[in-house]
């Protein structure tokens, strides 16, 4: 018996350890700690249903276990009583579940309506557009276009208008709330015909960086279609809007060289950088690229070394993308024909495209100590590197 037990324990131990490992660390994509009322409504429903149904599960399993033991077959025991066709039992096991479902349905239906709110007058409108495989964010009123990382002010309703440029994607930033389908705008011979387009109206209640990802299989690199919402205080948001609409001149020499290479290369056919002659709209907008959380929508950390490799080998690093690489055999579109030195300079230029840090200049007078327990703002460049992404191979 003991030997048998330790044999099972040894076999189960690795699985148990792996399961327990899920309880350690911090979770940028945890869904049980929403930072918006939109997410809170959903998590409340989840908690409500869970707390109502767990006791039912316990009771059912308990009664089942009791019956299995108490009424198990014994040698020479009597044949059990037949209950087939008993109206009484059938009514009981139909009516009780129907009542349970009804009780769950009432708050669920209320929540469904609450989550379909119309866009309020004072909402900040952000168009979130899915592409294979990156996210475009447009601020029509502010005249800003950005990619994969977008800013929202804390405390103001944000209307995320979801649509896709190609196939169905799904918008999911777990700390903001649940998934919602990003449907394509279909082009027919009669013209452009949107499928049912979804939107989300939410108000983020605490500043922070919230990671998310596409949650609908959408092709080869679906798993590398990540994004980040950066929620900031309203004055920082205003500073961001201003910074995004003001062109920035490269300072360092290498960055200046990279700027010149970028502006005379095919880069500008697909990419835009605010305030420059680069106005391509096929690929992600690169304004303030140096501040993005990643390269390639979550493929790898945003460093100059990674960017150099990306410029040279994008199609190998992220399968199926349109971004051309330096090698002819890499497939995709024609090669960029950038040498490694060119790529390094362009990487330096892109890294130099940074928001002012901090976004809102600190007052010159010495500020009072922050209240105890206040969260410290992370300094620029302090962001943890992404835990994913292949090590780029060198030539
Ligand atoms: Cu887009 Cu998966």
Index terms:
Immunoglobulin-like, single chain, 2 domains, 34% helix, 395 residues, elongated, five-stranded mixed β-sheet, binds dinuclear copper ion, alpha+beta, disordered C terminus, three-stranded mixed β-sheet
Topology, pairings included?
Layout: H1 2-21, H2 37-70, H3 87-114, E1 124-131, E2 134-139, E3 144-147, E4 149-153, E5 158-164, E6 169-171, E7 180-182, E8 185-188, E9 191-194, E10 199-202, E11 208-213, E12 226-232, H4 234-244, H5 253-264, H6 267-270, E13 294-295, E14 300-301, H7 304-317, H8 340-352
Parallel strand pairs: 1-5, 4-12
Antiparallel strand pairs: 1-2, 2-3, 5-10, 6-7, 8-9, 11-12, 13-14
Helix pairs in contact: 2-3, 5-8, 7-8
The structure holds dinuclear copper ion (CUA).
Descriptive overview:
The chain is 34% helix and 16% strand. β1 and β2 form a beta hairpin. α2 (37-70) runs antiparallel to α3 (87-114), α5 packs across α8 (340-352) and α7 (304-317) packs across α8 (340-352). It has 2 domains: 27-68 and 89-245, Immunoglobulin-like (Sandwich); 253-352, Immunoglobulin-like (Sandwich). The protein is built from 8 helices and 14 strands. The radius of gyration is 27 Å and the shape is elongated. The strands form 5 sheets. Strands 3-2-1-5-10 form a 5-stranded mixed beta sheet. Strands 4-12-11 form a 3-stranded mixed beta sheet, covered by helices on one side. The chain has a two-stranded antiparallel ribbon with strand order 6-7. The longest helix is centred in the first third of the chain and has 34 residues, at 37-70. It has 395 residues and is α+β, with helices and mostly antiparallel strands. Mean pLDDT is 85; it is low at 327-333, 376-382 and 388-395. The chain has helices at 2-21, 37-70, 87-114, 234-244, 253-264, 267-270, 304-317, 340-352, and strands spanning 124-131, 134-139, 144-147, 149-153, 158-164, 169-171, 180-182, 185-188, 191-194, 199-202, 208-213, 226-232, 294-295, 300-301. Bound molecules: dinuclear copper ion. Dinuclear copper ion (CUA) binds at residues 130, 133, 169, 214, 216-218, 222, 225. Residues 130, 133, 169, 214, 216-218, 222, 225 line the site of dinuclear copper ion.
């Amino acid at each position: 018996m003991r030997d048998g037990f330790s044999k099972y324990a040894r076999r189960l131990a690795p699985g148990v350890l792996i399961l327990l490992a899920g309880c350690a660390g911090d979770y940028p994509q945890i869904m049980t700690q929403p930072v918006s009322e939109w997410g809170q409504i959903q998590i409340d429903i989840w908690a409500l249903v869970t707390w109502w149904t767990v006791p039912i599960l316990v009771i059912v399993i308990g009664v089942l276990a009791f019956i299995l033991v108490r009424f198990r077959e014994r040698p020479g025991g009597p044949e059990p009583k037949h209950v087939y066709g008993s109206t009484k039992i059938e009514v009981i096991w139909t009516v009780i579940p129907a009542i349970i479902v009804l009780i769950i349905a009432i708050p669920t239906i209320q929540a469904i309506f609450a989550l379909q709110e119309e866009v309020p007058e004072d909402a900040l409108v952000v168009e979130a557009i899915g592409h294979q495989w990156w996210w475009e964010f447009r601020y029509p009123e502010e005249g800003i276009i950005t990619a994969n990382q977008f800013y929202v002010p804390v405390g103001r309703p944000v209307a995320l208008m979801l649509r896709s440029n190609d196939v169905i994607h799904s918008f999911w930033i777990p700390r903001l709330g649940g998934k919602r389908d990003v449907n394509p705008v279909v082009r027919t011979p009669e013209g452009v015909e949107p499928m049912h387009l979804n939107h989300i109206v939410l108000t983020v209640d605490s500043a922070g960086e919230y990671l998310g990802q596409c949650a609908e299989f959408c092709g080869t690199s679906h798993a590398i279609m990540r994004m980040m919402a950066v929620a900031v205080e309203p004055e920082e948001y205003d500073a961001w809007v201003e910074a995004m609409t003001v062109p920035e001149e490269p300072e360092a020499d290498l960055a200046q060289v990279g700027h010149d290479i970028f502006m005379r290369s095919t880069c500008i056919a697909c990419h835009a950088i605010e305030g420059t002659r680069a106005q391509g709209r096929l690929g992600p907008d690169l304004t303030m690229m140096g501040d993005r959380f990643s390269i390639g929508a979550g493929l790898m950390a945003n460093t100059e070394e990674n960017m150099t490799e990306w410029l040279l080998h994008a199609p190998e690093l992220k399968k199926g993308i349109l971004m051309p690489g330096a090698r002819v055999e890499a497939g995709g579109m024609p090669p960029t024909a950038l040498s490694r030195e060119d790529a390094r300079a362009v990487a330096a230029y892109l890294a130099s495209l940074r928001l002012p840090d901090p976004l809102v200049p600190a007052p010159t007078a010495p500020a009072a100590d922050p209240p105890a327990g206040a969260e410290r703002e992370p300094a620029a460049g302090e962001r943890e590197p992404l835990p994913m992404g292949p090590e780029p191979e060198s030539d």
